[in-house]
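Support request from a user on the community tier.

User writes: "When I paste my structure tokens into the form, the page sometimes reloads and wipes my input. The last time it worked, I copied everything first. Here is what I submitted, just in case something in the input itself triggers the reload:"
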């Protein structure tokens, strides 16, 4: 029978499978194992992590990492509710905390809820170190690619022999799991699916909703797709991809099979091999000034597909912010800084500028993205069921759009 020293017993929900796995995780962690916990959504990964954390508090600090500030705020409340520690020993360390307060907050805390980048930044400037940490929880562990702060923190944990528990509902394929094992130093996995514990799984059904885009959206989209058509066929000139053809002349509103971002990543090695062949071939007609154009096309294609995804699936404000940060700021970096030639080429394209002007007009008029409107309508129809609803967005910058709309309808949004 598991016993807990710092957790309020009335806050523990009795789930047999949860206690079973938690007991094994505690046992293995004490033996020096780092654990990956793969449970389906709604099976209780976060409560399980909190139960495990109770058994490490006597050995040092517990650090719990979430990928966004709103999630940190949400789980700070959960931790303060579940643990019988004073609130001033359970704190949130994120970018909004005043820098002059961070060192003392870290020093006084027994449990710290934080975003990974904040922890990396604070360690780098020397305000905190992880030497007194005994246990770290990584939520959404599948985010650990080589450029994400999770990897830096995991390496610190390995060097200091800190036990880690990594949570996800979607670890990916075998290659991805091997990468996670390497990045986090994992040597044990626990798996649970809805089928394993059907009595605790929520019934799921998919509702496909078709969103109709308004005229102002389609007008802006026309110019962005025209630019994408240009960079696709520009890249096709070296033969690493095939050319696209329009169904009808100048009809850019029909479906065009642009390469997805994942496909563009796979094209990169082939493009690099082609460039090396041209560089080593003295008879090649593609001298540096020519083959470099294909590098530019590939990079521009990548940036514009990201912009397209944000514009179509997220928000108008997010798309404009992407332009300002990824194109404008790099094309005009300020005195003494080097211009990004890819950003300059994008900026000088007439179709890109036409799209940008229309996007600015949309944002200035405060027009709401049709997906956000549809989302709010769908959630409002569920009001009668008095249920908790989770809303996931890809871009945290647009969280306030559905939050504001739902708050105006009387929903309690956190």
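"...and here is what came back when it finally went through:"
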């Amino acid at each position: 029978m598991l016993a807990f020293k710092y957790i309020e017993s009335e806050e523990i929900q009795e789930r047999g499978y949860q206690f079973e796995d938690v007991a094994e995780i505690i046992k293995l962690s004490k033996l020096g194992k780092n654990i990956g916990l793969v449970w389906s959504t709604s099976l209780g990964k976060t409560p399980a992590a909190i139960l495990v954390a109770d058994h490490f508090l006597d050995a040092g600090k517990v650090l719990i990492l979430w990928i966004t500030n709103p999630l940190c705020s949400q789980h700070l409340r959960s931790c303060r509710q579940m643990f019988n520690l004073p609130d001033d020993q359970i704190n949130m360390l994120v970018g909004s905390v005043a820098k002059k307060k961070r060192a003392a907050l870290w020093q006084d805390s027994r449990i710290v809820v934080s975003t990974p980048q904040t922890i990396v930044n604070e360690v780098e400037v020397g305000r905190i170190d992880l030497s007194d940490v005994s246990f770290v929880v990584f939520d959404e562990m599948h985010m650990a690619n080589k450029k994400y702060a999770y990897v830096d923190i995991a390496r610190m944990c390995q060097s200091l022999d800190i036990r880690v528990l990594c949570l996800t509902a979607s670890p990916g394929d075998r290659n991805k799991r091997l990468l996670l094992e390497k990045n986090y130093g994992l040597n044990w996995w626990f798996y649970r699916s809805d089928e394993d514990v059907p009595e605790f799984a929520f019934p799921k059904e998919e509702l496909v909703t078709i969103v109709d885009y308004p005229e102002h959206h389609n007008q802006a989209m026309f110019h962005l797709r025209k630019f994408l058509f240009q960079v696709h066929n520009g890249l096709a000139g070296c033969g690493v991809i095939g050319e696209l053809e329009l169904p009808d002349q100048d009809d850019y509103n029909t479906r065009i099979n642009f390469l997805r971002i994942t496909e563009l990543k796979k094209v990169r090695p082939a493009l690099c091999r082609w460039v090396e062949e041209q560089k080593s071939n003295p008879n090649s007609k593609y001298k540096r000034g020519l083959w470099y154009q294909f590098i530019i096309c590939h990079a521009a294609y990548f940036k514009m597909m990201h912009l397209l995804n944000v514009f179509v699936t997220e928000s108008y404000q997010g798309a404009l912010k992407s332009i300002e940060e990824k194109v404008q700021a790099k094309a005009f970096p300020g005195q003494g800084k080097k211009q990004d030639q890819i950003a300059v080429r994008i900026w000088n394209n007439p179709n890109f500028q036409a799209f940008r002007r229309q996007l600015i007009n949309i944002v200035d008029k405060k027009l709401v993205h049709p997906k956000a409107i549809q989302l709010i309508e769908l959630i409002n129809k569920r009001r009668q069921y008095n249920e908790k609803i989770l809303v996931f967005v890809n871009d945290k910058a647009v969280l306030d759009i559905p939050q504001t709309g739902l708050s105006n309808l009387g929903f309690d949004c956190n």
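Agent notes: The reload is a front-end session timeout and is unrelated to the input. The chain has a mean pLDDT of 88. The longest helix spans residues 288-313. Escalated to web team.
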